[in-house]
Amino acid sequence: MDPARESGLLRLVDQCLLVSFHGRDPDAALLERLSAGLGGVILFGHNVGDRDQVAGLVARLREAGGDRLLVAVDEEGGEVTRLEHSTGSVYPTAWALGAADDPELTAGVAGAVADDLASVGINLDLAPVADVNSDPANPVIGLRSFGEDAGLVARHVAAFVRGLQSRGVAACAKHFPGHGATKLDSHLDLPVLDVGLDRLRQVDLVPFEAAIGAGVRSVMTAHVVFASMDPDPATISAPVMGLLRKELGFDGVVITDALTMAAIRTRWGVAEGAVRALIAGADLLCVDADVDGQEATRQAILAAVCEGRLDAGRLEEAAERVAGLADWASPRGGTADPRRDVLGLDAARRAVLATVDEGLLPLGDAPHVVEAANGRWSGVGTTATSLGAALASLSPGTTVTRLQSTDGDEEVEAVLRASAGSPLVLVVRDAHRHPWQRRVLERVRAARPDTLVVGTGTPYDAFLAPGHYVAALGSAPPCLLAAAELLCGIGGAWRRDSALS
Q: Running DSSP on this structure, what letter comes out for residue 25?
């Protein structure tokens, strides 16, 4: 190939790459790639220290890549945060916002998230999650969704998009055409759904249509097979891309979920997955942090053009869309909302739900708290958060026992001895999906029928403790503090009974 043509094609390829990197300082190779026209960089928790460090890091990236560089994060609030991965987000989960069901509140939270990002130079948020969590067994969406009703999810997705983009930060509705009905996690395996187009149109596509109506600038694909349309997953499926482009009329940037996830990597490899995604109609490819892997992807795409598998015009179209998104999302700067923590806690207070028999609340004395689940999933690991700590801040003398996965009776007996004479609070997280938590819950409640159960996951655990259940709807700090306040009878204006199911 003529060297000039090869160089031109590689520039187009680079424009279509969203890369990650290791550590908190970009190395010389990444800075050189940015200077040559790399389209974007995505930051994860391991890249993030405090806000000054992040602002300095992004400034270095932009010094090399210019204002047209996309700098992205997954900042969903609640369970998935990057800027606050070490402490937990000050904002509640999407599910909590859906439970409060005030779209203006959701838009306000999203605007505050956008201010946080813009203040450190980040201009693309891979949020909101537009999936309808229609299967309680879903292991990866859950609280990241606004709920299980398509209409509710749609109005909050639209509100979140408006809130983000009103501050100049591009939103990304994910994971098209819907990850909410899966029983597998695409980080670990390839989910397959046998659902027809009618079901998709009635449920899963509804929030994406709302996002498009709200002007969302990008949409992320799902590494999920929709067998009625294609035996390949949506990320590399031309029929699924056609559904998005032609039926829904989306003309913005299509971003792939990370091509390093097992659903793609173990079957096609990252480089071949990238080629197939571009052929199908994707524009911006989330690829490897490994420099050799990035180069292999570049060369695979170049070879696909040379071999005629990938039309050069398709590559140009993708690069132009990415450049257009970068132009729209040019960094505008700004400052974080000084009342961001107050906004987050207020939202969590309005969301917490309870079905509790008369006389059980508020707690009369300092409780003993048994935490059978005390972490939050952030996409990059878990960081300990604790309802016991939140309760101790309000009710001095609170004691805490933390349980790990167990089948034994000894730990349960020890818990019962430790809690004698005190109110007993048991914390679980999606016990309906975790048999060991369910066994602990059943044993503790059999011995102590007055036990209050607090769920920090989806509210599907309510049936396990009827009349004794509080749904915090997340383990982010504001969710836990709002639940602790309810238990202690502090400012009960936000407490409301709900027909949890």
A: S
**Residues 429, 407: Cα–Cα separation, whole Å:** 17
What amino acid is encoded at 65 in this protein? G
Q: Mind listing the pLDDT tens digit for each residue in 330-342?
A: 887 778 888 899 9
Q: What pLDDT does residue 501 have? A: 45
Q: Does an H or E element contain 173, and which?
A: strand 172-176
Instruction: Please choose, from the candidates 89, 191, 186, 171, the residue with its C-alpha nearest in 3D space to the C-alpha of residue 129.
Output: 171
CATH architecture, domain defined by 352-494: 3-Layer(aba) Sandwich (3.40)
List, by residue range, all CATH 3.20.20.300 domains of the chain.
Answer: 3-328
* 327 φ, ψ (degrees, to nearest 5): -65, -45
What gap in Å lies between CA 427 and CA 429, rounded to an integer?
A: 7
Residue 497 tokens, joined? 């009974």
**By CB neighbour count within 10 A (0-12 exposed, 13-18 middle, 19+ buried), where does 494 fall?**
middle
Active site residues: 187, 257
Q: Cβ–Cβ contacts within 10 Å for residue 309, how many?
A: 14
Domain 3-328 classified CATH 3.20.20.300?
yes
Tokens of 370: 């048994």
Prediction pTM value? 0.95
Whether 382 has a pLDDT exceeding 60, the answer reads no
